[in-house]
Amino acid sequence: MSGSGPDPETLKRLALNKSVLDAVIANTNATKLLLGAQDQSRLDEYLTAVRAVEVKATQASAGMGGLACTPIAKPTLSDPSKPINNDDYARQNSASYNKGTHADVMNDLIVMAFTCDATRVISYMLEDERSEFTYDHVVRRTFTQTASTEVGGPCPAYHNGGQHGTQDDFASITWWNVGKVAELCSKLDAIKEDNGQTLLDSTLVMFGGAMHGSNHSCNELPMVLIGGGGGTFKTDQHVVFEKRWLRDLHHTVMTRMFGMSGPDVDSFGMGRADQPRTEVKEILAV
To answer: Are 284 and 234 in contact (CB under 8 A)?
Structure first.
Protein backbone atom coordinates (compact mmCIF):
# COMPACT_ATOMS: atom_id res chain seq x y z
CA MET A 1 0.00 0.00 0.00
CA SER A 2 1.25 3.48 -0.81
CA GLY A 3 0.30 6.76 0.76
CA SER A 4 -1.88 7.60 -2.23
CA GLY A 5 -4.10 4.52 -2.05
CA PRO A 6 -4.10 0.83 -2.98
CA ASP A 7 -1.35 -0.50 -5.25
CA PRO A 8 -2.24 -1.51 -8.85
CA GLU A 9 -2.37 -5.24 -8.07
CA THR A 10 -4.79 -4.66 -5.20
CA LEU A 11 -7.01 -2.49 -7.40
CA LYS A 12 -6.96 -5.14 -10.13
CA ARG A 13 -7.93 -7.88 -7.67
CA LEU A 14 -10.75 -5.75 -6.23
CA ALA A 15 -12.02 -5.02 -9.73
CA LEU A 16 -12.10 -8.74 -10.48
CA ASN A 17 -13.66 -9.41 -7.07
CA LYS A 18 -11.09 -12.09 -6.32
CA SER A 19 -9.77 -13.28 -2.99
CA VAL A 20 -6.21 -12.57 -1.97
CA LEU A 21 -5.90 -16.35 -1.56
CA ASP A 22 -6.54 -16.80 -5.29
CA ALA A 23 -3.24 -15.06 -5.95
CA VAL A 24 -1.31 -17.70 -4.00
CA ILE A 25 -3.38 -20.81 -4.72
CA ALA A 26 -0.72 -22.29 -7.02
CA ASN A 27 1.96 -22.00 -4.34
CA THR A 28 -0.45 -23.38 -1.76
CA ASN A 29 -1.20 -26.49 -3.83
CA ALA A 30 2.50 -27.06 -4.43
CA THR A 31 3.20 -26.77 -0.71
CA LYS A 32 0.44 -29.25 0.19
CA LEU A 33 2.12 -31.94 -1.91
CA LEU A 34 5.17 -31.70 0.36
CA LEU A 35 3.17 -32.14 3.58
CA GLY A 36 1.90 -35.13 5.46
CA ALA A 37 -1.81 -35.79 5.92
CA GLN A 38 -1.99 -34.08 9.33
CA ASP A 39 -0.17 -30.96 8.16
CA GLN A 40 -2.32 -30.83 5.01
CA SER A 41 -5.39 -30.81 7.24
CA ARG A 42 -3.93 -27.99 9.35
CA LEU A 43 -3.13 -25.97 6.22
CA ASP A 44 -6.68 -26.43 4.91
CA GLU A 45 -8.04 -25.35 8.28
CA TYR A 46 -5.85 -22.24 8.24
CA LEU A 47 -6.81 -21.29 4.67
CA THR A 48 -10.49 -21.72 5.51
CA ALA A 49 -10.07 -19.38 8.47
CA VAL A 50 -8.26 -16.84 6.29
CA ARG A 51 -11.03 -16.98 3.70
CA ALA A 52 -13.72 -16.46 6.35
CA VAL A 53 -11.94 -13.42 7.80
CA GLU A 54 -11.36 -12.02 4.32
CA VAL A 55 -15.07 -12.27 3.48
CA LYS A 56 -16.06 -10.54 6.73
CA ALA A 57 -13.43 -7.82 6.25
CA THR A 58 -14.57 -7.18 2.67
CA GLN A 59 -18.20 -6.89 3.75
CA ALA A 60 -17.31 -4.50 6.58
CA SER A 61 -15.20 -2.39 4.23
CA ALA A 62 -17.99 -2.23 1.64
CA GLY A 63 -20.37 -1.11 4.37
CA MET A 64 -18.20 1.94 4.98
CA GLY A 65 -18.95 3.13 1.49
CA GLY A 66 -15.67 1.96 -0.04
CA LEU A 67 -13.63 4.44 2.01
CA ALA A 68 -11.44 1.91 3.80
CA CYS A 69 -8.62 2.17 1.24
CA THR A 70 -9.48 5.53 -0.32
CA PRO A 71 -7.86 8.77 0.89
CA ILE A 72 -10.46 11.36 1.89
CA ALA A 73 -10.35 15.00 2.88
CA LYS A 74 -9.80 15.76 6.56
CA PRO A 75 -13.27 15.76 8.17
CA THR A 76 -14.62 18.63 10.24
CA LEU A 77 -16.15 18.17 13.68
CA SER A 78 -19.89 17.65 13.56
CA ASP A 79 -22.34 19.90 15.34
CA PRO A 80 -24.20 17.87 18.01
CA SER A 81 -27.07 20.37 17.89
CA LYS A 82 -28.02 19.38 14.35
CA PRO A 83 -30.95 16.96 13.81
CA ILE A 84 -30.04 13.30 13.66
CA ASN A 85 -31.04 12.96 10.00
CA ASN A 86 -28.64 15.70 8.92
CA ASP A 87 -25.84 14.46 6.67
CA ASP A 88 -23.27 16.28 8.81
CA TYR A 89 -24.42 14.66 12.01
CA ALA A 90 -22.50 11.97 13.87
CA ARG A 91 -22.10 8.79 11.90
CA GLN A 92 -23.90 5.78 13.37
CA ASN A 93 -24.87 2.23 12.45
CA SER A 94 -26.78 2.01 9.20
CA ALA A 95 -28.14 -0.58 6.79
CA SER A 96 -24.64 -1.04 5.36
CA TYR A 97 -22.42 -0.39 8.39
CA ASN A 98 -22.37 -2.08 11.77
CA LYS A 99 -19.76 -1.06 14.34
CA GLY A 100 -20.02 -4.42 16.09
CA THR A 101 -19.21 -6.27 12.86
CA HIS A 102 -16.32 -3.89 12.26
CA ALA A 103 -14.91 -4.57 15.74
CA ASP A 104 -15.35 -8.34 15.29
CA VAL A 105 -13.40 -8.25 12.01
CA MET A 106 -10.60 -6.29 13.67
CA ASN A 107 -10.45 -8.88 16.46
CA ASP A 108 -10.17 -11.70 13.92
CA LEU A 109 -7.42 -9.89 11.99
CA ILE A 110 -5.45 -9.27 15.19
CA VAL A 111 -5.71 -12.92 16.26
CA MET A 112 -4.66 -14.10 12.81
CA ALA A 113 -1.70 -11.71 12.68
CA PHE A 114 -0.42 -12.98 16.04
CA THR A 115 -1.10 -16.61 15.17
CA CYS A 116 0.91 -16.29 11.96
CA ASP A 117 3.61 -14.27 13.74
CA ALA A 118 3.12 -11.63 11.04
CA THR A 119 3.77 -8.97 13.68
CA ARG A 120 4.66 -8.71 17.35
CA VAL A 121 3.00 -5.35 18.09
CA ILE A 122 -0.47 -4.06 17.20
CA SER A 123 -1.90 -0.64 18.10
CA TYR A 124 -5.69 -0.73 17.86
CA MET A 125 -8.05 2.17 18.61
CA LEU A 126 -11.61 1.04 19.31
CA GLU A 127 -12.74 4.64 19.73
CA ASP A 128 -11.09 8.04 19.95
CA GLU A 129 -11.80 10.58 22.67
CA ARG A 130 -13.37 13.14 20.28
CA SER A 131 -15.51 10.73 18.29
CA GLU A 132 -19.09 11.72 17.54
CA PHE A 133 -20.17 8.16 16.75
CA THR A 134 -23.67 7.48 18.07
CA TYR A 135 -23.91 4.21 20.02
CA ASP A 136 -27.54 3.63 19.14
CA HIS A 137 -26.93 -0.14 19.14
CA VAL A 138 -25.92 -0.16 22.84
CA VAL A 139 -28.67 -0.22 25.47
CA ARG A 140 -28.31 2.20 28.38
CA ARG A 141 -27.35 0.60 31.69
CA THR A 142 -27.05 1.64 35.33
CA PHE A 143 -24.02 0.57 37.33
CA THR A 144 -23.23 -0.25 40.95
CA GLN A 145 -19.99 -1.42 42.52
CA THR A 146 -20.82 -5.05 41.71
CA ALA A 147 -23.32 -5.19 38.84
CA SER A 148 -25.02 -3.40 35.98
CA THR A 149 -28.61 -3.46 34.76
CA GLU A 150 -30.21 -2.51 31.44
CA VAL A 151 -32.59 0.44 31.76
CA GLY A 152 -33.59 0.68 28.10
CA GLY A 153 -33.08 3.19 25.35
CA PRO A 154 -30.07 3.68 23.06
CA CYS A 155 -26.85 5.32 24.15
CA PRO A 156 -26.02 8.79 22.80
CA ALA A 157 -23.06 10.02 20.78
CA TYR A 158 -19.76 9.02 22.36
CA HIS A 159 -18.38 12.50 22.97
CA ASN A 160 -21.39 14.79 23.27
CA GLY A 161 -23.93 12.61 25.10
CA GLY A 162 -21.49 10.10 26.55
CA GLN A 163 -18.62 12.15 27.88
CA HIS A 164 -20.79 15.22 28.51
CA GLY A 165 -23.73 13.24 29.82
CA THR A 166 -24.10 10.96 32.82
CA GLN A 167 -21.49 8.59 34.16
CA ASP A 168 -23.89 5.73 33.41
CA ASP A 169 -24.14 6.71 29.73
CA PHE A 170 -20.37 6.84 29.44
CA ALA A 171 -20.05 3.57 31.36
CA SER A 172 -22.63 1.87 29.10
CA ILE A 173 -20.57 2.69 26.01
CA THR A 174 -17.38 1.66 27.78
CA TRP A 175 -19.07 -1.60 28.85
CA TRP A 176 -19.65 -2.43 25.17
CA ASN A 177 -16.04 -1.60 24.24
CA VAL A 178 -14.72 -3.68 27.15
CA GLY A 179 -16.82 -6.58 25.91
CA LYS A 180 -15.09 -6.43 22.52
CA VAL A 181 -11.69 -6.50 24.22
CA ALA A 182 -12.81 -9.47 26.31
CA GLU A 183 -13.86 -11.29 23.14
CA LEU A 184 -10.43 -10.60 21.60
CA CYS A 185 -8.66 -11.98 24.67
CA SER A 186 -10.90 -15.05 24.72
CA LYS A 187 -9.93 -15.80 21.12
CA LEU A 188 -6.23 -15.44 22.00
CA ASP A 189 -6.70 -17.68 25.03
CA ALA A 190 -8.32 -20.41 22.89
CA ILE A 191 -5.19 -20.87 20.75
CA LYS A 192 -2.73 -23.38 22.17
CA GLU A 193 0.97 -23.03 21.45
CA ASP A 194 3.65 -25.72 21.27
CA ASN A 195 4.80 -25.03 24.84
CA GLY A 196 1.37 -25.89 26.22
CA GLN A 197 0.47 -22.29 26.97
CA THR A 198 -2.06 -20.17 25.12
CA LEU A 199 -1.40 -17.27 22.80
CA LEU A 200 -2.78 -14.96 25.49
CA ASP A 201 -0.17 -16.27 27.96
CA SER A 202 2.52 -15.02 25.57
CA THR A 203 0.79 -11.71 24.88
CA LEU A 204 0.28 -8.49 26.81
CA VAL A 205 -2.88 -6.56 25.98
CA MET A 206 -2.75 -3.00 27.34
CA PHE A 207 -6.26 -1.57 27.33
CA GLY A 208 -7.03 1.96 28.41
CA GLY A 209 -8.17 5.38 27.33
CA ALA A 210 -7.47 9.05 27.80
CA MET A 211 -10.65 9.79 29.74
CA HIS A 212 -11.79 8.64 33.19
CA GLY A 213 -15.46 9.27 32.60
CA SER A 214 -17.95 12.03 31.93
CA ASN A 215 -16.14 14.03 34.63
CA HIS A 216 -13.29 14.44 32.09
CA SER A 217 -10.67 13.49 34.70
CA CYS A 218 -7.43 12.69 32.90
CA ASN A 219 -5.43 11.98 36.06
CA GLU A 220 -7.50 8.98 37.14
CA LEU A 221 -7.11 6.69 34.15
CA PRO A 222 -8.08 3.04 34.60
CA MET A 223 -5.66 0.75 32.75
CA VAL A 224 -6.05 -2.98 32.25
CA LEU A 225 -3.18 -5.35 31.45
CA ILE A 226 -4.38 -8.72 30.17
CA GLY A 227 -2.10 -11.70 29.54
CA GLY A 228 1.20 -12.73 31.06
CA GLY A 229 3.58 -11.46 28.41
CA GLY A 230 5.41 -14.78 28.42
CA GLY A 231 5.53 -14.93 32.21
CA THR A 232 6.81 -11.38 32.64
CA PHE A 233 3.72 -9.86 34.24
CA LYS A 234 1.52 -10.74 37.18
CA THR A 235 -2.12 -11.53 36.54
CA ASP A 236 -5.34 -11.55 38.60
CA GLN A 237 -4.60 -8.46 40.66
CA HIS A 238 -5.85 -4.91 41.13
CA VAL A 239 -3.25 -2.26 41.87
CA VAL A 240 -4.25 1.23 43.03
CA PHE A 241 -1.76 4.07 42.64
CA GLU A 242 -2.35 7.31 44.51
CA LYS A 243 -0.11 9.16 42.08
CA ARG A 244 1.99 7.57 39.37
CA TRP A 245 3.21 8.70 35.99
CA LEU A 246 1.65 6.72 33.13
CA ARG A 247 5.04 7.14 31.52
CA ASP A 248 6.43 4.62 34.03
CA LEU A 249 3.97 1.95 32.86
CA HIS A 250 4.83 2.44 29.19
CA HIS A 251 8.55 2.36 29.94
CA THR A 252 8.22 -0.81 32.03
CA VAL A 253 6.42 -2.57 29.17
CA MET A 254 8.99 -1.32 26.64
CA THR A 255 11.97 -2.63 28.59
CA ARG A 256 10.53 -5.77 30.20
CA MET A 257 8.21 -7.04 27.45
CA PHE A 258 10.29 -6.12 24.42
CA GLY A 259 13.78 -5.73 25.86
CA MET A 260 14.11 -2.26 24.34
CA SER A 261 17.12 -0.12 25.20
CA GLY A 262 19.12 2.83 23.91
CA PRO A 263 19.14 6.63 24.22
CA ASP A 264 15.57 7.08 22.94
CA VAL A 265 14.25 4.55 25.46
CA ASP A 266 16.31 6.03 28.29
CA SER A 267 14.93 9.51 27.62
CA PHE A 268 11.32 8.37 27.10
CA GLY A 269 8.94 10.61 29.03
CA MET A 270 11.65 12.49 30.89
CA GLY A 271 11.04 15.90 29.31
CA ARG A 272 7.54 16.39 30.81
CA ALA A 273 7.98 14.72 34.18
CA ASP A 274 9.11 16.31 37.41
CA GLN A 275 10.09 12.98 38.96
CA PRO A 276 12.72 10.41 37.99
CA ARG A 277 11.40 7.45 36.05
CA THR A 278 10.88 4.31 38.12
CA GLU A 279 9.89 0.79 37.12
CA VAL A 280 6.37 -0.36 38.01
CA LYS A 281 7.48 -3.40 40.00
CA GLU A 282 3.94 -4.13 41.22
CA ILE A 283 2.99 -5.58 37.83
CA LEU A 284 6.10 -7.70 37.31
CA ALA A 285 6.17 -11.44 37.96
CA VAL A 286 9.97 -11.65 37.74
So the answer is: yes
